[in-house]
Amino acid sequence: MSALSRFFPRGPIDVSRWLVELPADGRISVMPGWRWIPTPGHTPGHISVWREADRMLIAGDAFITTAQESAYAVLTQRPELHGPPKYYTTDWKTAGASVAWLASLEPETVITGHGPPLNGQALRTALHHLADRFEVVAIPPQGRYVNKSPSRK
Hints:
alpha+beta; 153 residues; 5 strands; five-stranded mixed sheet; single chain
């Protein structure tokens, strides 16, 4: 990521015309049957989207289904569950709590911001393992935000 950073935009991008304030009750007016869930940690204000009827979860980057830090894994898209991207997660303690909350939902199918969709019992087992061992398997040993995270002081 750092090698490619020179190609990233140098300034802020105005996305205000696409932003819509979400109602406090969790409803999403344009997605009947879905509700938004606060899942901060990867970024402040991060949300996931949940549909109870079929236990479908759009997790964003709360957790991901590929080893995003590996160019090979990104190219092959071999499915494997990981915590949020290590190169930019601002609050590891809160990210772990968000993963635990999402695991408690017992999703049947998950779509994430990085990696292929996953489903079934194997997904739930891996998600519970991630939630139970988050500090050991998800948090990198060092990084810009690691020492700022209350769970690592």
